[in-house]
Amino acid sequence: MIDQFLRFLVHLYRIHGLLVRAVASIFRRPLYLETILEQMDAVGVRSLTIVGLTSFFTGMVLALQSGHEMAVYGAKMYVGTLVSLSLVRELGPVLTALVVAGRVGAGIAAELGSMAVTEQIDAMRALATDPVKKLVSTRLVATTLMLPILTIMADLFGILGGWFIAISNLGIPGSFYRRTALYYLTFDDLFIGLVKPVVFGAVIALVACYIGLNTTGGTQGVGRSTTQSVVTSSILIFLLDFVITKLVLTVM
Amino acid sequence: MIRLKGIWKRFGELEVLRGLDLEVQRGETLVLLGRSGCGKSVTLRIILGLLRPDAGRVYIDGTDVTDFDERRWVEVRKRMGMVFQASALFDSLTVRDNVAYYLEEHTDLPEERIDEIVAERLEFVGLAGTEDMMPAQLSGGMRKRVALARAMAANPEILLYDEPTTGLDPITARTINQLIRKTQEAYHVTSIVVTHELDSAFAVADRVAVMNGGEIIFVGTVDEVKACEDPFVKDFLMGPTWQEGRALTR
């Protein structure tokens, strides 16, 4: 147990080292803008459908569940507030991050993992390219930029899902839902809701790259890396979600 | 040109290199000969900076590059090319893009000029017209040749070959050996070839360095190695003697 914890700390230290190297080389030439754009497309645009669907249904379920419960206390009309607050502060960032960790993080770990076990990473270094710059920095930038945008989309789709249930099932007028959903949102809520995805995005890319680059053991190793990357980043997302929430609530 | 001094390298419990010394002259082809797993490939990787030695120094053209960080190694590696054991072609790129990789990354040459160089290199290795194929469509021997073309694209001064003929049929292996000689003669590169195959070693070598137990135990020309009295070298060159063979069957 202690052994495992120590090993975890060593990995954390190395991931930190990777972060420092990746950030330091972002602005060094060549910039690989094309690769960054490709990655942004893969991370952002192509995750939009699944992120949208996930949060739309989450918004619907939230409205359904809370609508019936809140009716008991006579607060049914304020379902919009509950839906938008929980989405913007918590569910939007976390759900989006989990979906992206599963979709994009796994993909990155598998891609870099295959490259590592077939010596393609070494070949890249032999051809005088720094893999940290070419592979890690580009993915780090793309994921960190795209996750907040995806999260905003998720929030919108979720609130839309809640609206759909509110007017069709709960008998709440659409305009009232809209007003209650937006009226109680403060700057703090939006702030916390956008800090999280920035951090989560960086974590997903870093963990996936780190595990991918350190893959050994052939195709089986690639499979292991893929799973490991999703598990590790999911745990870190939940852990950091708590830490960030606690920090921001203490400071504000 | 390249000098390794007292190189030690261990992986966990396993001591792979134990104070290895090696010197490679400009323009020669040196073959590193030894049994599988004796640390030949590790030596190659240390020369290229892919691995860092635990102790000892690496000199390239008299410069001590041992403690270089990745950024400075990148500059050193621009003068080197390596042909990997499993070729290590970028499998998501076409043959053309594989060979062009270095030029696209590190030069501002126009696309047409890069195309020309790629075509020239591919023709040199006998694969003209394969530009648009993917690595998965190529045979093992063809991949090796594309890997050589890719390593050659930047006109390196030093070429490193990791087991260039392993896993190839004898005829393909012979073509690769001829190609290594041809490359050295046409481009005057300094080459280091790692192999455990005697045919290949004697076909390409100017000098042979025999490795055992993490050290170089003998260096000399092909004839000198063949005449060497060291029991391990003799053993390696001959295979088990007939007495031992008989002892085994008895």
Descriptive overview:
- By secondary structure, chain A is mainly α.
- Chain A has helices spanning 2-24, 33-43, 48-72, 79-117, 120-126, 131-168, 174-183, 187-213, 218-251.
- Chain A has one domain (2-251).
- In chain A, helix 4 crosses helix 7, helix 4 (79-117) runs antiparallel to helix 9 and helix 6 (131-168) crosses helix 7.
- With 250 residues, chain B is α/β, with parallel strands linked by helices.
- Chain B has a domain at 80-155.
- Chain B is built from ten helices and ten strands.
- In chain B, the strands form two sheets. Chain B has a six-stranded mixed sheet with strand order 6-7-8-3-9-10, sandwiched between helices. Chain B has a four-stranded antiparallel sheet with strand order 2-1-4-5, covered by helices on one side.
- Chain B is globular and about 55 Å long.
Number of helices of chain B: 10
The radius of gyration computed from the alpha-carbon positions of chain A, rounded to a whole number of angstroms, is 21 Å
Mean pLDDT of chain A: 93
* Stretches with pLDDT under 50, minimum 5 residues of chain A: none
Share of residues in helices of chain B: 40-55%
Q: State the major sheet of chain A.
A: none
Q: Between the first and last Cα atoms of chain B, what is the distance in angstroms? A: 51 Å
- Assign the structural class of chain A, choosing from mainly alpha, mainly beta, alpha/beta, alpha+beta, or little secondary structure: mainly alpha
Number of E-state strands of chain A:
0
Greatest chain-chain contact: A-B, 16 and 28 residues
Q: Would you list the SSEs of chain A in sequence order as H and E?
A: HHHHHHHHH
CA radius of gyration of chain B is 19 Å
Helix content of chain A: over 70%
| Number of spatially distinct domains of chain A | 1
| Biggest beta sheet summary of chain B | 6 strands, mixed
